[in-house]
Amino acid sequence: MSRLVLIDGSSYLYRAFHALPPLTGPDGSPTGALFGVVNMLRATLKEQPDYAAFVVDASGPTFRDEMYPAYKANRPPMPDDLRAQIEPMLAIVQALGIPLLRVPGVEADDVIGTLALQARSKGIPVLISTGDKDFAQLVRPGITLVNTMTGTVMDEAGVQEKFGVRPDQVVDLLALMGDTVDNVPGVDKCGPKTAAKWLAEYGSLEGVMAAAGDIKGKIGENLRAALDRLPLNKRLVTIKTDVELEQGPEDLRPRPRDVAALRELYRRYGFNAALRDLEAGNGEGSGRRTPPGPSALAGETAEAPAEGLAAPGAYECITDRKALEAWLERLRDAPLIAMDTETDSLDPMRARLVGLSFAVEPGEACYVPVGHDYPGVPAQLDREWVLEALRPVLEDPDRPKLGQHGKYDLHVLRRHGVQVRGYAEDSMLESFVWNAGGQRHDMDTLAQKYLGYQTVKYEQVAGKGAKQIPFSAVSLEDAARYAAEDADITLRLHRVLSEKLAGEPRLMSVYRDIEMPLVPVLARMEAKGVLVDAEELRRQSEDLGRRMLAAQQRAHEIAGRAFNLDSPRQLGALLFDELKLPALVKTPTGAPSTNEEALEAIADQHELPRLVLEYRGLAKLRNTYTDKLPEMVNPDTGRVHTSYHQAGAATGRLSSNDPNLQNIPIRTEDGRRIRTAFIAPPGRKMVACDYSQIELRIMAHLSGDEGLLRAFESGQDIHRATAAEVFGLPLEEVSADQRRAAKAINFGLMYGMGAWGLARQLGIGRGEAQDYIALYFSRYPGVRDYMDRVRQQARELGYVETVFGRRLQLQEIHSRNAAQRAGAERAAINAPMQGTAADIIKRAMVSVDAWLQQHGDRADMLLQVHDELVFEADADFVDTLLAEVRRRMAGAAELRVPLVVDVGVGANWDEAH
DNA sequence: GTCGATACGTAC
DNA sequence: GACGTACGTATCGACG
User: Fold this and answer.
1) Which nucleotide is nearest to A835 if distance is taken from CA to C1'?
2) Which of A640, A657, A683 marks a domain boundary?
3) Could you say which of A782, A800, A831 is where a domain stops?
4) For strand A639-640 and strand A643-645, is the pairing parallel, antiparallel, or unpaired?
5) What does the pLDDT read at residue A293?
6) CA–C1' nearest nucleotide, residue A744
7) Contact, A524 vs A419, CB < 8 A?
8) Which of A59, A161, A577, A885 is at 20 to 30 A from A266, Cα to Cα?
């Protein structure tokens, strides 16, 4: 049957450019993108389509620019290295005999759309080869999409599955979502999920617009704000299918290739594999080994296009000793080993090793299964034997290793008896340091962003939800495809990201001198865990439970009926509808809030609000802490092992989860009691060391404000000193209220708070709050100048940075939305202080750990809570520890103010404060 | 049963 | 809308 293949040349050129390492030809000219495209074309031709066209954008404006002058205004200019590859690409396309189309005034998309519909009307099946999701709107019987980079084929069912809408709804979906790359703003906060939901409900864009008044919440407001531009969006994203063309589908027969011209071109650009095939007289792409990935075209198993793009590479599944030894040889010779482990659990403290993968060159990776277990599983190498064989490499500090979130793999291997040394690079942390604004740093996201590559998802091999199977039950074939890709992609990501970091010495230093050395330190803290008195917590749970029940019964009594105290909605209905109490606070969606502030405000008018507050406080402690922590005790170690997320907070802070040990209560009596359950074992003590007012000290340092610096140098209570300065009083005459106000200002400023917030915080009028702030700035003019400088820098550079050079990108600093922009400005104010504090304590941790490592088992670092480090130490070692930790924490940075460290010792965490 | 959004509250 | 950074629990409605 005849068939038309339409190739979206621009899309592949861009993707290949970003996906492949910056290769160069024999003469040094850039060839990376060219290489990818050529391999893709050779694979396509091997399928011998009857009709084909390579479509690229012509230069000059199109009808879309006339419709919307800002169209694609965000696009950075084409990199020179890419521009240089266009002419060679077109020459190769010509030599291969593929018809080339460039039509001025429209985009390549429109040419493809028109040809696709023409062919379909003549009964010619059409395959559109592209990496651009917008083409999903053209899918219908007879028109299919294929992405040779990811090997995915998309028909109508595929569109429905991927986008959740029918192909004819895709333009509506795209109009709602907008397209940041093309500078077409959609509905704010409306992604594919929300857009698909609306379209499912209202059928079309017009239906959604008509129903805009009924859509609740902030997203509804965003929709209403965007109504005006949606029709234009739709016209912009709609691919034209009625362009006047000189050629019809039947004019697009491939010509015979020009062997002499190809030989010359391949030779010039150093495409040796292609040249070999050409000289061997093979059809394009033949003679290569079968890749493990899905096929590029038509669903049958295609051959790998040389070292190319369509398939991820040559992946080997190792099940015999000889093969492993051959790979060991490669690992020993490699300058850097990309590695990854596969296990049966996400919990690194429980996970059992199922397999390991390695890569040393992009596109070449192996998977060593050691724990697959399903009926009919082929023979695998013995786990112990494999680990013994790998041990010399993995434990050698002089053989650098690379991973993606390698802390996890370090844990797994340690628990299987291998102490990894020389863990030198981590692509997750490279990405985090390179761009800590907003996005996630998981491999799938990074592969998409930096390589333009869609990885095989875990769900694709192991399923999800109830149907998920452990990785040990995944077939060796699927596992090898997935796992080897992980190592391969990690290596490719590292090549891209390390290059970027190399051009920014300060960022490189954050990565090299702070983040990477911290990895094994965190791993040790997590592995050690903290001892928790589960019995004590159970007793507290019982006590809390009794008091909750009493509060609940009393609340139901007063209400005159039973209701769910845990349901804000039911509570709101009772308080504000039935009892007619005033609703003084609104939630972000506009509903009356029942939060603490709202209830406090009406607590003098009715008994119920106070009881609800009582109940809430008790329920929080029990549900979140006293009930849960005992469940988190690891049966093997008898301790609780949190995980620290090193790329979690955009400012550079760590975060803690499973369980979160960075938000254990301290402010209330009942809450603090939970800390008594964090204990030291017999013969040991808990030791807590925290930085005193570190962020305010950093504000003094960064602003250089004389008054603030003096206040810290005096060594006085900083809030009292601030109050004395602001109110023009001697220290001893500062009243409690004045100190409270000064404290609120000190903290509020660091968070970018305005008069409105301060007034609310202090329960005073807005005018009075504004006066306080003005007074503060008049006494500390350096602080105001600093804040102005930071906002300025954020606007000019799009990022702010810490003392050590860590950057936070602030995408929304130029948002058209005033609230978003204001939010970004507040983040800009806060990030240098919060981030510098994070840098400092991270440096301190590395330093303290290095010292602890020299002292065997006398003490262990257990926890980090942003400005505090918690240790467990032999009782007779406590004094030594205190002196050294103080010294190293205080010495972790040289600022214009001293860093002061407060310490405490006790039998439990509460006493250590 | 699972998932995502919303509300709330804990820490620094 | 109004104070920065996190994580966890409960409810509730949608979905299969």
Assistant:
1) C5
2) A640
3) A831
4) unpaired
5) 33
6) C3
7) no
8) A59
Look at residue A202 in the predicted model and tell me its pLDDT. 86
pLDDT recorded at residue A759 = 93
Which residue is the nearest neighbor of B11, CA to C1'?
A663
Give the nucleotide with minimal C1' distance to the Cα of A627.
C9
**Cβ contacts of residue A284 below 8 Å, gap of 6+?**
A41, A42, A43, A45, A46, A96, A277
Residues A740 and A822 in one domain: yes
- Same domain? For A737 and A627 the reply is no
Question: Looking at the domain assignment, is residue A381 inside a domain?
Answer: yes
**Same domain, yes or no: A459 and A537:** no
Residues A494, A598, single domain; the answer is: no
The gap between A228 CA and C6 C1' (Å) is 37
Nucleotides in chain C near protein beta carbons (<7 Å): 1-12, 15
The confidence score (pLDDT) of residue A336 equals 97
Give the domain CATH number at A702: 1.10.150.20
**Alpha-carbon gap, residue A370 to A664, rounded angstroms:** 40
Instruction: Report the C-alpha gap between A615 and A623 in whole angstroms.
Output: 12
CATH number at residue A93: 3.40.50.1010
Domain extent, residue A327, equals 314-503
In terms of domains, do A350 and A457 share one?
yes
CA A197 / C1′ B12 distance in Å: 38
- Give the dihedral sign, CA A542/A544/A546/A552: negative
Position A280 in a domain? no
Q: Is A695 left (phi over 0), alpha (psi -120 to 50) or beta?
A: alpha
Residue A553 belongs to a domain with what CATH number? 1.20.1060.10
In terms of domains, do A477 and A538 share one? no
Mean pLDDT of chain A, nearest integer: 89
> A377, A306 in Cβ contact below 8 A?
no
Q: How many domains does chain A have?
A: 4
Q: Which residue is nearest to nucleotide C10 (CA to C1')?
A: A566
Q: Is there contact between A219 and strand B, defined as CB under 7 Å from any strand atom?
A: yes
A809 CB inside 7 Å of strand C: no
Q: Which residues pair with A152 in a beta bridge?
A: A147
For residue A440, give the H/E element and its range.
none
pLDDT at A595 over 70: yes
The reply to whether A567 Cβ lies less than 7 angstroms from strand B is: no
Residues 6+ apart with CB under 8 A from A658: A347, A632, A642, A643
Same domain, A499 and A357: yes
Q: Which nucleotide is nearest to A587 (CA to C1')?
A: B7
Q: Answer yes or no: is A751 CB < 7 A from strand C.
A: yes
CA nearest to A103, candidates A170, A169, A57, A161: A57
Which residues are A129's β-sheet partners? A7, A146
Q: Residue A834 CB closer than 7 angstroms to strand C?
A: yes
Domain assignment present for A300: no
Residue closest to A12 by CA, chosen among A103, A111, A128: A128
Say yes or no: A351 and A494 in one domain.
Answer: yes
| A494 in Cβ contact with A427 (< 8 Å) | yes
A893 phi, psi to nearest 5 deg: -155, 150
CATH number of the domain within which A355 lies: 3.30.420.10
- For the segment 448-477 of chain A, residues whose CB is within 7 A of strand B: 464-466
- Identify the band that residue A133 occupies on the pLDDT scale cut at 50, 70 and 90: confident
What the block records as the tokens of A612 is 């609800």
Residue that is written with structure tokens 């000289």 in the block: A279
Lowest mean pLDDT among A25-29, A243-247, A410-414, A882-886: A25-29
Under the banding of pLDDT at 50, 70 and 90, the label for residue A21 is low
Q: φ, ψ for residue A341 (rounded to 5)?
A: -115, 150
Residue–nucleotide distance: A882 CA to C16 C1' (Å):
58
Taking the CA atoms of residue A782, residue A785, residue A787 and residue A792 in that order, the dihedral angle to the nearest 10 degrees is -150
Residue A256: inside a domain: no
The amino acid at residue A169 is Q
- The helix (run of H) or strand (run of E) holding residue A508 is helix A505-509
